[in-house]
Amino acid sequence: MSEYKIGFIGAGNMGGAMIKGVIASGLTDAANIMVSDFDPEKYGPIALQYNVLTTNDNIKCAEFADVLILAVKPNIITTVISQIKDHISEDTTIISIAAGTMISVIEKAFDKRIKLIRVMPNIPVLVGEGMAALSPNEYADDDSIAKAVEIFSSFGKCEVVSESLMDAVVGVSGSSPAYVCMFIEAMADAAVLDGMPRDKAYTFAAQSVLGTAKMILDKNYHPAVLKDMVCSPGGTTICALKTLEEKGFRDAVISGQLACSQKSKDMSK
Question: pTM (2 decimals)?
Answer without folding.
Answer: 0.92
